[in-house]
Amino acid sequence: METNEKLDNLRHSLAHLLAAAVLKLWPETLVTIGPVIENGFYYDFDFKHPISDKDLPKIEKKMRELLKTWKEFTVEEKTFEEAKKYFADNVYKTELIDGLKDKNEKITFYTAGDFTDLCRGGHIKNPSKEINTDAFKLDRLAGAYWRGDEKNKMLTRIYGVALETKEELEKYLALREEAKKRDHKKIGHELGLFTVSDLIGSGLPLIKPKGMIIRKTISDFLWDLHKNRGYSQVWTPHIAKEKLYEVSGHAAKFGDELFKVQGKEDKFFMKPMNCPHHMQIFADDQYSYRDMPIRYFEPATVYRDEKSGQLGGLTRVRAITQDDGHLFCRKDQIEEEVGVIVSIIREFYTSVGMMNNYWVSLSVRGTDLSKYIGETKNWEIAEEALNNAAKANNLNYKRVEGEAAFYGPKLDFMFKDSLGREWQLATIQCDFNLPERFDLSFMNENGEKERPVVIHRAISGSLERFMGMLIEHYAGSFPLWLSPVQITILPISEKQSIYAEQVYSELKNSNIRVELDSSNESLGKRIRNAKMQKTPYIIVIGDKEKDSNTLTIEGRNNVKIENISTEDLIIKLQKEISEKAL
RNA sequence: GCCACCAUAGUUCAAUGGUAGAACAAUGGUAUCGUAAACCGUAGAUAUCGGUUCAAAUCCGAUUGGUGGCUCCA
After folding, report:
1. Is 0.95 exceeded by the ipTM?
2. How far is the CA of A184 from the C1' of B23 (A)?
3. Band of the pLDDT at A3, cuts 50, 70, 90?
């Protein structure tokens, strides 16, 4: 904690320095706020003349220059009137000062060098001594609305990164470079996994054959994990009448994010969620308490009209395929059912090597109970059931107050990828709202109609986002079970083509995804192509192999197996695939 | 949507306001090769629309698309 606070103070001091440098260069600029963020800081400005990122080095230079004169931060408490007078020309600071007065907080000014700013404190003592000039860097420019509200004026935000030492800064920048190299849009293009078309539109990626192998392998695996645990697959159409979403409440919740489809007579919506559809399937039958739980699974595409600026690649899209599922159960079944879902999540994420770096948010109600619908008694039952299931399954979980949805408590799973970035993926949510809205019921042991609890659950979250994440997690080097091409056969010359084709057929007939590259290129070139495609295994066939009727295979990490028969190779590959070896 | 930046061949990149070049890929041929790019040919482009200019890939405006950001609160 100690070092974090020190780093935060350092970053915050740099934000002041940034503002001071900007004022030196463009004195008419209005300064606003400059907080600390992960890995650095930013400061929002109202520039009178637009600046571009070409100005950043100039500002950075000025910062280094000013830093020499910043020997300490001094603090002065001001009265409301004094503060207002000092910042009379700055509407933003004036608004902040008014806010402080309303909250009855102290008003303090901090000064370093000849720059004074309204600030609640949190600086280092001697900037010129403690700030390492090689450990910070102005990073990028961005637009940002004053106080994050799009009704307000757009300010110019300057981001900086700052760490304690030059080495740490370089390490951080290198990690960011690595992330850029792994960008799923770049790798997806190089490996021919997906594409986007201007004519079709942004946020609507097209999955190419090789990408579809990965996607289908994932969704087949997901279904395998569900089918023996009492789930049934269902299918629901992509549009529905407006009325459905009025009843479900999604029309109000999603608002202008809903795509509208005008039919000849009725107005339809593209579905933004599958839940209401699944509710209607359940409502079609009268179930007994003995039938419960009823479990539906559907990998289904939903559509949301996201703002165009928020789209890109596979992770921010308008057509989202959720591995969605809903189950309808009695209150006394929540705990056991959540346990089943947890076991699915555990198996799924173990297979992609992410189960060793995760945490779970047990999201429960906050103190303001008016924000939540449903009876307190039911909430208590559900929160306890989730807690018990998390504990019984040894989850690394944390109770987070106030993070529950308005309709029920939930377990949100956060996983870290191989670069240490956190992704919110799986989720298990209790819902008291939809059963109420759709008036769902089952017959209990007393012959009375009883309201079921709905549990929403998604394992991968969405197939698009999950695939994008997975591409970056593996940097395109997928494990064998996920690789679009699992093995490539390279005959050295035409003399081995008959033997090569024979091996090719045997592998193909054993459901191995194999490619035979006997194109008119040098062996070196064909090896290079296979490696660039990150193919897990390569077989080179020359006279040696042909004459001895064996194979030499090579894996990605310089693994080399010689003198193996085709039968033994197939056994080895099938074992590796079925075990989903990492 | 808004702010900043960006848009040249299928891809990755060149080109002071003055003849749009290259590599890879594609394609036609030659070489039949033992571990990350054989050799010789061919074809292919300034996103769209408008303006400035003797002259525009280059300058200006609009449109379309992309990248980063718009959640972090003195």
Report:
1. no
2. 24
3. low
